[in-house]
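Revision sheet: structure tokens.
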Amino acid sequence: MFDLVPFGKRRDDVFGAMAKSLHDVFNDEFFGPVTGSALSFRTDIRESEQAYLIEAELPGFSKDDIDIDYASPYLTIKAVRKEEKSGENSQQQVVRRERRYGEYVRRFYVQDINGDDIRASLKDGLLMLEVPKRQKAAGKRIEIQDPGNSGPQLQ
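Predicted:
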């Protein structure tokens, strides 16, 4: 249940380069891990006796943008953002065009769950999953019989 975040390239001369403006420095990949460009999202996981409760922060996503998949033993949550904005002036010239695409994925290793009964809901950018645990069979005590009784016979 851990995420590994790869760090960007090392920059020894972040503030020393005269050719770069301050704006370019702060938009550089050096600050990527801090600003969250690792394309992940925050989750909280709680455990009760019956289930795991997962809350994932996905603001701005609709339920059609989110895909939840369980292929034993991995539970995968994937959210895809496809956003395009365009603006034109009165002469039909493009003044501004912005596109933003991204895929946010989290994968969790879960054991002994009932994959058929996973429930999910999305409200105000918070995805909530209830992942029920597989009910363990109650143990049964086996009595040892006396050799004179009709116990199991090996032949």
